[in-house]
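Structure in, sequence out. Go:
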């Protein structure tokens, strides 16, 4: 079950080139500066914003991951978590029962690898066919999400060979390694059977992310009404429940609308492609969809309600065969640039690069670039990416962004200890954030019996992580009883 592209053979190369064009946003030329002359004065419009460009192209020097003796390795899900890059992908191992597609797992300190599994192997199987049911023989195309301490694995399952039978299942785990099938072991999305095409793949290749309390599911359905002639197309469902068994909405021509179940007609495709992956870019309040085109992986951007393309598409060049996996945060969001969280977006993928001896995709490699001069953080909601960053203050102090609010710190040395990073420029959106507190030098610090430390600002308690924060701020530390500590109004957490 190496994916719909394996069924179409040479047809994919043509489809990937021609079918993606309608979904790619072309850059709009910036207007030239103009002047308006009057007898009183001359008014000049501000200069146009610099064009969005790509820089810092990168790729791994070789193969970053492969299952031992596996005939193919592709379709990865990649998560950056706790200083590790964690990866799950589709493969096939002879010692994993039953014979068929398996999901492997390995991790590394960086995207260049090498990736190693907890058992010391290049990749250990963490989910295989159930032996019965819709996923009896094959499990493939993983997408991994972490919400509320639980890992969710969405995957393509098949009982046998292709006959419009592929469907999407879900499993849960406390650690991302030991998985238990959810939803009673039944599929959560099946083919819609809107129409019959030569491509008999069915529904699969899921990619799931979590935004504002919604689970968003991007997936392939070669029987969907809005799919292309060869079955290419990406459809979107969303639900409050991770199993998509109730209160489901489908993206159609009029936006998201409630549907009775996940098999309702597929009336809108957001990109003409197979084996896509996506993430949410908070700085833009937009979705970024990765899909393969002629010269590499193209990233197409859709705004929050799928009514337009906020920035032009960009292509990460290099060789590829199938299945880009975006490096995402555990909840499926774009990593934040530490130097320019509003204007720079790191785009990194892992993808199969060649067809191996089994004539199937393998040799996973890392490729990436940065999109820069991006017009991000235009609203206070989009400015959530600034949480933990500090910026220059209009009062010759430093403003620390905490939970959508500003804490104004008198001493830069204190801010450097509290902040993820101090930026050189102040994004305009910070002026819209409310001022929550000021940290003057010498503000009183208190310590609880359990060692917790906080600053008292206007009588309210702000937690800090270490005693050196108080030292840098010349704040005397007073030990208090637990009763006194509990009586303080908890205002916020400045620990990082």
């Amino acid at each position: 079950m190496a994916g719909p592209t394996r069924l179409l053979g040479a047809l994919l190369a043509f489809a990937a080139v021609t079918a993606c064009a309608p979904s790619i946003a072309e850059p709009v030329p910036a207007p030239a500066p103009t002047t308006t002359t009057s007898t009183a004065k001359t008014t000049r419009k501000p200069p146009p914003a610099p064009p969005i460009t790509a820089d810092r192209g990168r790729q791994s020097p070789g193969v970053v991951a492969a299952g031992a003796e596996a005939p193919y390795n592709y379709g990865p899900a990649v998560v950056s978590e706790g200083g590790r890059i964690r990866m799950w992908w589709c493969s096939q191992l002879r010692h994993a029962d039953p014979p068929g597609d398996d999901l492997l797992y390995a991790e590394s300190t960086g995207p260049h690898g090498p990736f190693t599994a907890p058992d010391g192997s290049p990749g250990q199987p963490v989910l295989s066919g159930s032996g019965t049911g819709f996923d009896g023989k094959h499990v493939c195309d993983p997408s991994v999400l972490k919400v509320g301490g639980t890992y969710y694995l969405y995957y393509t399952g098949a009982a046998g060979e292709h006959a419009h039978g592929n469907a999407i299942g879900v499993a849960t785990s406390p650690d991302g390694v030991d998985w238990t099938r959810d939803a009673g072991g039944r599929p959560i999305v099946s083919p819609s059977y809107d129409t019959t095409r030569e491509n008999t793949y069915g529904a699969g290749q899921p990619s799931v992310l979590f935004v504002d309390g919604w689970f968003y599911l991007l997936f392939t359905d070669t029987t969907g009404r809005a799919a292309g002639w060869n079955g290419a197309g990406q459809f979107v469902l969303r639900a409050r429940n991770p199993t998509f068994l109730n209160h489901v909405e489908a993206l159609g021509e009029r936006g998201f609308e409630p549907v009775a179940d996940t098999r309702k007609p597929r009336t809108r495709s957001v990109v003409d492609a197979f084996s896509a992956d996506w993430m949410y870019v908070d700085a833009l309040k937009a979705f970024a969809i990765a899909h393969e085109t002629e010269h590499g992986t193209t990233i197409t951007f859709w705004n929050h309600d799928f009514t337009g393309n906020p920035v032009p598409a960009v292509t990460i060049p290099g060789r590829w065969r199938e299945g880009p996996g975006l490096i995402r945060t555990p909840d499926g969001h774009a990593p934040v640039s530490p130097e320019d969280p509003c204007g720079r977006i790191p785009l990194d993928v892992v993808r199969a690069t060649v067809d191996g001896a089994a004539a199937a995709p393998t040799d996973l490699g890392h490729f990436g670039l940065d999109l820069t001069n991006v017009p991000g953080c235009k609203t206070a909601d989009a400015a959530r990416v600034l949480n933990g960053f500090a910026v220059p203050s209009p009062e010759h102090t430093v403003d620390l962004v905490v939970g959508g609010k500003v804490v104004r710190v008198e001493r830069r040395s204190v801010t450097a200890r509290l902040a993820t990073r101090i930026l050189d420029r102040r994004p305009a959106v910070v002026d819209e954030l409310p001022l929550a507190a000021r940290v003057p030098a010498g503000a009183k610090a208190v310590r609880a019996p359990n060692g917790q430390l906080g600053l008292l600002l206007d009588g309210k308690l702000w937690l800090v992580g270490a005693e050196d924060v108080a030292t840098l701020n010349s704040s005397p530390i007073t030990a208090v009883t637990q009763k006194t500590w509990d009586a303080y109004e908890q205002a916020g957490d400045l620990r990082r």
